[in-house]
Design a protein that fits this description.
Elements: H1 6-32, E1 36-42, E2 45-51, E3 60-64, H2 72-75, H3 84-90, E4 94-98, H4 135-138, E5 142-144, E6 147-148, H5 159-164, H6 176-185, E7 191-196, H7 199-209, E8 214-220, E9 238-243, H8 253-268, E10 273-277, H9 278-281, H10 297-308, E11 328-331, E12 338-343, E13 349-354, E14 360-366, E15 370-372, E16 379-387, E17 390-398
Parallel strand pairs: 3-4, 3-7, 7-8, 8-9, 9-10
Antiparallel strand pairs: 1-2, 2-4, 5-6, 11-12, 12-15, 13-14, 13-16, 16-17
Helix pairs in contact: 6-7
Length: 401
Amino acid sequence: MTPVTLNNLNIKRIFRQIFFLIISLLIAGKGMAQHTYGSYYTNDALVNFIKSGNKKDSSAIVMVPGLNLTSYIFFTTPDHRKGWAELFADKGYDVYMVNDPKYDFATGGIIAPFSVPINGKPATPGLEQAWQSDIWRRWGFGTSQGIPYADAQFPTDSFANFTLNYPYVGTSAKLFENAISAVIDSIKGKVWLLSHSAGTQAAVLAAHQKKAKLNGFILVEPAGPPDSADFPDFNGLHMFGVYGDYITSRNQTSRKVAVETISVKFQNAGGISDVVSLPEDSLVKGNSHLMMQDKNSKYVFNIIEHWLQQFSNNTVGIESKFNNNISMNLYPNPTGNEIWVENNSRDIIEYSIYSMDGRLLQESSVLNQKIDLSNLPNGLLFIKLKQKEQVIIKKIIKNGL
């Protein structure tokens, strides 16, 4: 039997320490990548937040739900898929979801892993849920309650789970926009305001209060979007709008036209702006008013997030060096198998074309000439155009004509 010397013991101890150090670092590294979840009250509004475990962008997303809706619509779906809030956190954004102060979450309607802070508002006895009737038709789930459209993207089989997360009506008289403004104030970096439906009205009012902190708006079928009276206050801000299906039967046509009109105003005021209609531009049918809850919600998220990529920290100089005197136009659009790039300078433009899920499909460079699209799929594509230090993303609608 070989005697164990002090040196042997030291060597074994060192190897053991190294082994456990490696394991500890791996566990710590894994922990560092996890998101942090929390809740707090401000101006009587319950705020749920996710601090990204892979923070890559200094901008944050502040989400504002529509009437009678809550953080639930952004955090998960009725059939328990990951919601937009976590998807944004996965991409490196901190996310804040601001609930209307008039709702009482101490009574119920909260979703794990969030909780109602102990030092928040006490529950008000006898409250009822903020239920609305006939939402199947008005929100594009089906022809009437319990009868879904054949191509409905909303997970109607899980509708009961959706109704469980309606908020309870409280007694607060605090203004929604003041709560949103307080959240924006608490964020160190710039903010994107992502608002849904009637929540847009409060988001626009908060934007006036905190314009210097904003990158711009992401508008999901908004009611009360910005209009001409909001300029020049919103000069230089950016805007992205998105619409689902059944717009005519849901009486959303005038709202959609208003958003398309104000999109041009954002562009003329020095911003970058676009509006996507899912059935018209991406040839995807059946999306509801709550597309963040729909079965293809990640597809819609990819459209929004890909548009935001042009403003990310990894895109050199897009805002500080954006030159509105340089024009880069695409025509015709929608198009068939080719599209022309019109450029009012003589500099070569580098281009990259991406699918909705961010896959690079084609790249090259052009100078006032056509781009062959014959090998690309039909539907909505994004093209990133780079000219010197200016970068812009535009949509291409390829119909394969």
